[in-house]
Every structure is written in C-alpha cells, then in structure tokens.
Amino acid sequence: MSTSKRRRWRAEEKLRILKEARQADQTVSAVCRHYQIAPGQFYAWEKQARKGALEGLRNGQRGRRRADPSQRLQAEIERLRVVVTELSVENLQLKKGLWP
Fold it and tell me: What is the pLDDT of residues 41-67, one digit of tens each?
C-alpha cells in the first residue's frame, strides 16, 4: 500500500505546464519529467483544455439563447397539475353520479 498523497493541480498550473511543453525549445517528455507527471496525464489535460476551449467558443455564439431547462420543466409540471386537477374533479363527479 502506497503512502504517497495524490497531487492536486490547479487549472492555472495545468495551463502553464501545457504552454511550457508546447514551446519550440521544449519536448513534452522533458516537461513531464520536470513536473513528475506521466505523458498520458499531460495529453489528458491537453484534451480537456481543447474541449473547454471549444465549449467556450460555442457558448459565445450569437442568436437566441436557449431557455433555462428548469423553467421549461416547471411549466410542464404546472400544466400537468392542472390536468390532474381537472381529471380528479371529473372523476369525483362521475363517482357521485353527476353525468355531464
């Protein structure tokens, strides 16, 4: 059983390491050795950074914003409550023999 603790890298540190490895005079393996990280970890961070950059660029698009899903769901819940209430009233009337 290992007694070593896992290191926590802040986003700023990860970005600095990614930039350092992509400089012309640096190799990925040298930077990974310097910071004692596995190359696979480096490439996972790089993939996350690209994905985050794409999301940031996509979210900056102009046009209509999508409605908040919670608002849409709340409206649907309210509509269903009205339907259930109407059905309950109709059911009670039928049970009492009050045919419409």
Answer: 999 999 999 988 888 887 665 666 666
pLDDT digit string, tens, across residues 80-89: 999 999 999 8
Handedness of CA 17, 18, 23, 27 (dihedral sign): positive
Would you call 92 exposed, middle or buried from its count of C-beta atoms within 10 A (0-12, 13-18, 19+)? exposed
Euclidean distance between CA atoms 59 and 49, whole angstroms: 15
- Amino acid identity at 83: V
Domain coordinates in residue numbering, the chain: 9-59, 70-100
Q: Please give the helix or strand (H or E) that residue 3 lies within, else none.
A: none
